[in-house]
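request received
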Amino acid sequence: MSQESVSSSTASTRRYYPLLELVAARVREFYREPEAIFWVYGFPILMTIALGIAFANKPITQVDVVVAAGPGDREVESLLTSHDDPKFQVRILPAETAWERLRTGKTELVLVPHTAGGGFTFLYDPARAESMMARFAVNEVLQGPKRIPIEEQHMTERGSRYIDFLIPGLLGLSLMGGGMWGVGFVTVDMRIRMLLKRLLATPMRKRDFLLGLMLSRLLFMIPEVLLMLLFAWLAFGVEVRGSLLSLAFIIVLGAFTFAGIGLLVASRARTIETVSGLMNLVMLPMWLLSGIFFSSERFPAFLQPLIKALPLTPLIDTLRSTMLEGTPLIVLWPELALLALYGTLSFAIALKIFRWQ
Amino acid sequence: MTVAIRCRQLVKVYPGPPPVEAVRGLDLEVQTGECFGMLGPNGAGKTTTIEILEGLLKPTSGSVEVLSRSWDRDEAELRQRIGISLQETKLSEKLTVRETLVLFRSFYRQGLEPEEAIALVSLTEKSRTRVGKLSGGQKQRLALACALVGDPELLFLDEPTTGLDPQARRQVWDIIRRFRDRGRTVMLTTHYMDEAERLCDRVAIVDHGKIIAEGTPRELIQSLGGEHIIEFSLIDGNGRAPQAELQWFAQVPTVHAVREEDGQICLSVGEPHIALPALLNRLRDSGLELGSLTTRHASLEDVFVSLTGRHLRDAETNRP
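response:
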């Protein structure tokens, strides 16, 4: 068999890197699709604006109140607990813990009993609708025939407002949505177009292809995240307390994990409808439970193990800890390890069960 | 001559309900250096067969050997040595011709430079054009270039010219011929008899998952007995020739076969210059008048019709 090449001379000297070429192809396809760019980059910003400016005015059925330990704390607790509409969830905690819970959105209002005079200081974030409602509701209950002196202290310090709490949640949400839709849709689309089958007919390594999809997703995520953080900083003054490097690490890990989950969800689906349904099914529990808009600790204790096991929960928790409290990465290792495990497992399973045609 | 592809008793059943027997005991041998065509109507099992040979489908039973290797053991090596163009692949519309070929080239250990592959299919001027902006023929040539960029020994093409205009088809044929002329092997499927006749060194006619005839296009046509066809129609009231007449036509000198369909009478004829005068005399004596008369060379279409009683183009609708 003759092995002569077409133009006799050229024994190929150029080096080719399939993984690099696969990523490059995805990046080109992406930035040459203007609509996709809007949905990936414009949408999260629009959502941040909408939620950041007009925090959802949702009705409150249960108000979480913390009474800082001090004189008269028991009486206030029993007074509030016996009240029915709205129902109060009351805890007595040391002042420091109470303040921490307020700052991280786990509670709406903190009552600090005055040492003399039987009055209280209301501690809350006036920018949060829930806090405002809690403040008035509690005040109404406390004010009997005898007027109790009330002082107010607002939490408007940066890093302690609701918007500071919300941004890491939205960041996690966007990493989840972007990763899953970004990888899942493209995969199913390629399957429908028989492009996967065509690639399977080449010596391409399957691992390269799937890794290429995930890596290109990491690239698209960078401007998305930078835009969101920049916007939150310029418009609302949201700052990052922890190191930016730690934050970047968590973001990359989160994007990788959800790209992997997206790949897994799309690994067998034959139609866009199927993959959309599966995506929503997988994301819904995380939308509801993982603490995007309010702390997941508000859910009943029996749900907590489930919530902690959802991949979005450790992502949002670690983002929040890093951005709001500057917690070092080393402390967050169990959550980060869980995330990494989800990502790696998803990728491995997807590689195994992937439908190429 | 070495054998490039060999398969024995190939069977593929798609699980039901009801189970579909797409390939039903198919034997095939393709020699190195030839262009081999599987000709058959849509639904005959051509695509299933070629995809099994390409290692993309697993046969239900039977053995397959490609370049003396088996798909089970040597997939990685085989993928490096063969080129494939599927029946329907939509390459990424957003990538340019060149980008697409660089991507495909990167999967092979050795092969052509992307520019060489582009030149092979005469797309050099479109090198920087996005795939979405190419015409159907240009897309098909790009698909060929993707199959050629790994400099394969063996090329599989599933319906390489379906849906193309005549000029685009000829361009594709030229590319395939040039590849074959360099001593490489081509295996293709087609439901166009002219494609099989003009492009392929050998042809297997496939129907209902089986090979019903095999040989060079010339051998297949000669198997009809006559290489010429006389087609005519008669005007006699309802336009039908009586049974007695049909039997008589078979006795016209050098006629090998007679068939009638839709008022057209078709004679397979060895030597038309002998058969034609005898036919015309007889018609005049019987007082029958000709509605139309044509003579032409027999084609693979006639072979298919004589074997199955159906035409290539409408065989699909007649499937049981």
